[in-house]
Amino acid sequence: MKFLKKLFSKQPNDDSSKNPKNNEQPQLANAMTYEKEDIGKVEWNNKDSLILSNDNQIMEWNSKNGQIAFLPATTALRLHSGKYSLDFNIEEMNSAQIGVGFILLWDNGLLDWGFFGYLGAGFYAWSYDPSTGDVINAENSIQGGLPKFENKRSGIITIELNLPRNAEGEGKFIVNGIKSNPIKLPIGAVVVPAATLLRKDQKITISNFKTYQ
Predict the structure, then answer these.
(1) Could you give the CA distance from residue 91 to residue 58 in angstroms, rounded to a whole number?
(2) d(CA 129, CA 147)
(3) DSSP readout, 170-210?
(4) How many whole angstroms separate alpha carbon 195 and alpha carbon 197?
(5) 135 — alpha (psi -120 to 50), left (phi > 0) or beta?
(6) Does any domain span residue 11?
(7) 40-79, pLDDT tens digit by residue?
């Protein structure tokens, strides 16, 4: 059984999770259409559904969303044409599943969240779940047996992105010094760091953003 369908088997589907490829035939965004310095800001979006603090670098579940099963969240970063790293400091996962990682941007500004909008459900989205030690893509675990957060509450997950402007790219997760297998990314990919919260009181800070020559 697919990883996420098992997780959300009792949740209704919705139109927002459809793959953009099925609509007006958009294409993945390409780095060549951006200025090299145009990479966005190190902050969370989703101001209406999340509680944001510390210059929008800390986000947590808004208690007003009492009936929602989970909350997808994106950053304002649009990474391309370089090498980057970013820490997801999970300050509280509340003994539940949680997902952090990245998703590719489309040229119409949409994101392919995929099945139920969970990060890692779409074909162009990858998520690390520290409750299971899995990397998730297209509804499946593509690598397991990676470090978990043993206290079921907190820890740091780092993403490393190598995004050439006109060649294939690569992404990795790092947890407790252990690197995931490299994830191949399309030529000129534009990457958005993102997350999914699955329980009230979960809280994530983005920090230690670095660029490399």
Answers:
(1) 9
(2) 10
(3) EEEEEETTEEPPPEEE-TT--EEEEEEE-STT-EEEEEEEE
(4) 7
(5) beta
(6) no
(7) 999 998 777 788 999 999 999 876 665 567 788 999 999 9
Domain count of the fold of the chain? 1
User: 34 — phi, psi (to 5°)?
Assistant: -115, 145
CB-CB neighbours of 193 under 10 Å: 26
What is the domain extent for residue 175? 19-212
Closest alpha carbon to 139 in 160, 104, 113, 100: 113
Residue 24 lies in a domain: yes
Tell me whether residue 4 is in a domain: no
User: 133, exposed or middle or buried, with CB in 10 Å at 0-12, 13-18, 19+?
Assistant: middle
Tell me: the pLDDT tens digits for 79-109?
Answer: 999 999 999 999 999 888 999 999 999 999 9
Residue 5: inside a domain: no
Supply the pLDDT for residue 8: 42
In terms of Cβ atoms closer than 10 Å to its own Cβ (0-12, 13-18, 19+), residue 44 is buried
List Cβ neighbours of 37 (8 Å cut-off, separation of 6 or more). Answer: none
pTM (two decimals): 0.87
If you ran DSSP here, which 8-state letter would residue 52 be given? E
C-alpha to C-alpha distance for 141 and 180, rounded to whole angstroms: 12
- The CATH code of the domain that includes 192 is 2.60.120.920
Q: What DSSP line would sit under 92-144, residue for residue?
A: E-TTS--EEEEEEBBTTS-B---GGG-TTSSTTEEEEETTTTEEEETTEEEE-
